[in-house]
Design goal:
single chain; 0% strand; 127 residues; mainly alpha
């Protein structure tokens, strides 16, 4: 039984081992996710030593920081995805504009040719 318990201990996180070793009467999840007011009330509701409370504060801080880091990475990925979408739209818009430019240049040449022909016709008639 002791061997299975030690192999189970191997799968516990550092904070879960700390809670077990220090005989803290709360789970890591409770320590991290309880609202601040309830977390502060833990001290009075349970016989918790100052050392245990300090460890609880450290666990809570690390847990909150881990969540903040995950959220930060998630926001970064979402931001990158948004920028990639914006880039794709900008490339499409550029292609459309370049296509329009080619057509407008073609029309400009056509109108220039027509104007030249018209000028020649007028000059021939004036002679």
């Amino acid at each position: 039984e002791e061997e299975s318990e030690s192999s189970y201990q191997g799968r516990l996180s550092r904070d879960e081992r700390l809670v077990a070793d220090m005989k803290i009467p709360f789970t890591v999840v409770e320590i991290i996710f309880k609202p601040m007011e309830e977390f502060n009330d833990l001290r009075s509701s349970q016989a918790v030593t100052e050392e245990q409370m300090n460890i609880c504060r450290d666990i809570r801080r690390r847990g909150k920081n881990k969540i903040a880091a995950q959220n930060c990475r998630k926001r970064k990925i979402e931001q990158i995805s948004g920028l990639e979408n914006d880039l794709s739209l900008a490339k499409l818009k550029k292609e459309n504009i370049l296509g329009e430019r080619v057509e407008l240049l073609r029309q400009q040449q056509e109108w220039g040719r027509r104007l030249g022909t018209l000028e020649n016709d007028i000059l021939v008639r004036l002679r």
